[in-house]
Design a protein that fits this description.
The chain has 174 residues and is of the alpha+beta class. The chain is 27% helix and 25% strand. The strands form two sheets. It has a five-stranded antiparallel β-sheet. It has a two-stranded antiparallel sheet with strand order 4-5. The radius of gyration is 15 Å and the shape is globular. It starts with 25 loop residues before the first helix and ends in an 11-residue tail after the last helix. It binds zinc ion.
Length: 174
């Protein structure tokens, strides 16, 4: 396994709509394993392929105390409820904001071998999945904020980014 480079906002790869995964095989499994390791080392709870420069619909996540999970071509089919909660992002390390998300979602996806899966997720898990699925649409969490807060976060991030020397300095979440 290898640690991958995480792309920071506003890299172009983070703004693209990612392409569906069509090739299932050892290469995809290696990418998912590397993403899990990269997420772990960065103390994150989720990571989408565009964040490591791969514009494909693949994401990994792990709830605190939970099992690591890998979702391919995920689709949020239903969502209910709404709650503000603090979010961060490995592509904007050290930045946090309260982001509104649905509290209950129904997800369909494929596992790493291409087998269809369908499940429901609530609260924090639902939040992680919504955050990571946003990455597959080229959306980052500041895009979910009101214009004023968004501008504030982006402005702070510009300063923070200048002071980030190595990815080692990264201590963050999704
Ligand atoms: Zn993120």
């Amino acid at each position: 396994m290898a640690k991958l480079k995480i792309f920071y906002y506003p890299d172009k790869v983070l703004t693209l709509k990612a392409a569906p995964v069509t090739d299932f095989g050892p290469e995809l499994e290696t990418l998912a394993q590397d993403m899990l390791e990269t997420m772990d080392e960065s103390e994150g709870v989720g990571l989408a392929a565009p964040q490591v420069g791969v514009s494909k619909r693949l994401l990994v996540l792990c709830e605190p105390e939970g099992e690591p999970m890998c979702l391919v071509n995920p689709v949020i089919k239903e969502s209910e409820g709404r709650e503000y909660g603090e979010e961060g992002c490995l592509s904007l390390p050290k930045m946090y904001a309260r982001v509104p998300r649905a509290t209950h979602i129904k997800v369909s996806a494929q596992d790493i071998r291409g087998v269809p899966v369908e499940f429901e997720a609530n609260n924090f898990l639902a939040r992680i999945i919504q955050h990571e699925c946003d990455h597959l649409e080229g959306i980052v969490f500041p895009d979910r904020l009101d214009a004023f807060t968004r501008e504030e976060v982006i402005e702070q991030w510009e300063t923070v980014r200048k002071n980030l020397k190595k990815p080692k300095d990264v201590r963050q979440r999704a």
